[in-house]
Structures are given as structure tokens and as C-alpha cells.
TrEMBL record:
Transmembrane segments: none annotated. PROSITE patterns: PCNA_1 (PS01251). It holds the Pfam family PCNA_C. Belongs to the PCNA family. GO terms for cellular component: PCNA complex. This is DNA sliding clamp PCNA. This protein is an auxiliary protein of DNA polymerase delta and is involved in the control of eukaryotic DNA replication by increasing the polymerase's processivity during elongation of the leading strand. The keyword Transferase does not apply. It comes from the Eukaryota. One of its GO terms (molecular function) is DNA polymerase processivity factor activity. CDD domains: PCNA. InterPro entries: DNA_clamp_sf, Pr_cel_nuc_antig, Pr_cel_nuc_antig_C, Pr_cel_nuc_antig_CS, Pr_cel_nuc_antig_N. Residues 89-216 form the Proliferating cell nuclear antigen PCNA C-terminal domain.
Length: 226
């Protein structure tokens, strides 16, 4: 038996709003520890991982592990969606740079840059994090400097850096990720040259939504390195 009850039903609606444009079909996995989802977008470019821990629910009961949306025998002899339920291994990794900033500011930056270019270069140095784009009508650069002395922690920009990093990503995916902004006041962006970026929105003490996206390879690099 599976029984779930949330104090704020709007939370689940916000989660669905955050995922619906990126993922069309997915399994929800339920266990004694919580409610989770892992899926790729239709182009197999981006990955999303969701976790809602059992202790975050007002009432949570799951007597056995369930994967919702798998094939089941029904009186109507109808076949439910056949969705790949195999989970991808997401190893824990150490990142060259981790940026924590207001989620609304990150959403605004991605939206503003989209009016100029299709990609964003995220560069992290000791001076701060820079978001850059280039298009037919010009270029744009937005720099966010570290600021951890503000009165409200959710308004701070905090940078942890082991070494500088500069990577390019598709803005359409970044804008899709920002649909999760209503879930959290802050967003954490983890970057490393050998790994996909991780854009994480924490859902209070309940869990998180994490988006993974591989960096784009610049055309000039491809031309010089056939």
C-alpha cells in the first residue's frame, strides 16, 4: 500500500511545473525512505533527479517498493506506458567550482541572455562568476561577485573554487531548469571540466531537484582538434 499526504499540496504542483517541459514520461519510484524520480529529456541531453524524503510528508506509508507507470494487467486489457525504469548511475564527484546564488537572479540572467544568444559561457574565477553570451545582435556579460555578508543568506552569492573553470551550455536547457525557481530561494551550480553541470534546487529540508547537463564543445575547438 502507498499513502502520501503533504501539508502543502502546492509543493507537488510546483515540482510538476518544474519538470513538465523537460520530461514527458517518467517513473515515480516509492520506497520506505521516500519518493523519487530519475529521467532524461526526449533528446537524451539533460537528466533530472528528484528526491522527496519520507520524513518531509505529513503522512507517508509505503509497504513495498513501487515504480509507478510500469506495465500492469488491467480489466480493460490496456497497456500502460512502457517507460524505461533503469536508473542511471550518478556518482558522487568533487567539482572544481560550486556557486550558490539567489534562484530568481539566476533565472533572470538566463532569460536576459536568451534574448541575445543560444548558449551561455559560465566562468568561475576568484573574482566571481561570469555569464556570457554572443549572438547576431551583439554580446552580453553579467558578473556576480561573491557577497556573503548580506543580511539574508538566501540573497548571498557564495563561491567555492578549487580551480578556475569556464564551460558553455545551451541556454534553452538552462531556462528550462529555472522553472524550478519557485521551489527554492537559492540555486547551487556545480561545475567541473570533466563532468556535466549540476543545477540543484533544494526543497526545504524535504529533498531536492537536480538537473544535469553536459557542456557544449565549441566549434572552433572541433576544427582545431579533428
Amino acid at each position: 500500500m502507498l499513502e502520501l499526504r503533504l501539508v502543502q499540496g502546492s509543493l507537488l504542483k510546483k515540482v510538476m511545473e518544474a519538470l513538465k517541459d523537460l520530461v514527458t514520461d517518467a517513473n515515480f519510484d516509492c520506497s520506505a525512505t521516500g519518493f523519487s524520480l530519475q529521467a532524461m529529456d526526449s533528446s537524451h541531453v539533460a537528466l533530472v533527479a528528484l528526491l522527496l524524503r519520507s520524513e518531509g510528508f505529513e503522512h507517508y506509508r509505503c509497504d513495498r517498493n513501487l515504480s509507478m507507470a510500469q506495465d500492469k494487467i488491467a480489466d480493460f486489457e490496456m497497456k500502460l506506458m512502457d517507460i524505461d525504469s533503469e536508473h542511471l548511475g550518478i556518482p558522487e564527484a568533487e567539482y572544481h567550482a560550486i556557486v550558490r546564488m539567489p534562484s530568481s537572479e539566476f533565472a533572470r540572467i538566463c532569460k536576459d541572455l536568451s534574448s541575445i544568444g543560444d548558449t551561455v559561457v559560465i566562468s568561475v574565477t576568484k573574482e566571481g562568476v561570469k555569464f556570457s553570451t554572443r549572438g547576431d545582435i551583439g554580446t552580453a556579460n553579467i558578473v556576480c561577485r561573491q557577497n556573503s555578508t548580506v543580511d539574508k543568506p538566501e540573497e548571498a552569492t557564495v563561491i567555492e573554487m578549487n580551480e578556475p573553470v569556464s564551460l558553455t551550455f545551451a541556454l534553452r536547457y538552462m531556462n528550462s531548469f529555472t522553472k524550478a525557481t519557485p521551489l527554492s530561494n537559492t540555486v547551487t551550480i556545480s561545475l567541473s571540466s570533466e563532468l556535466p553541470v549540476v543545477v540543484e534546487y533544494k526543497i526545504a529540508e524535504m529533498g531536492y531537484v537536480r538537473f544535469y547537463l553536459a557542456p557544449k564543445i565549441e566549434e572552433d575547438e572541433e576544427e582545431t582538434n579533428p
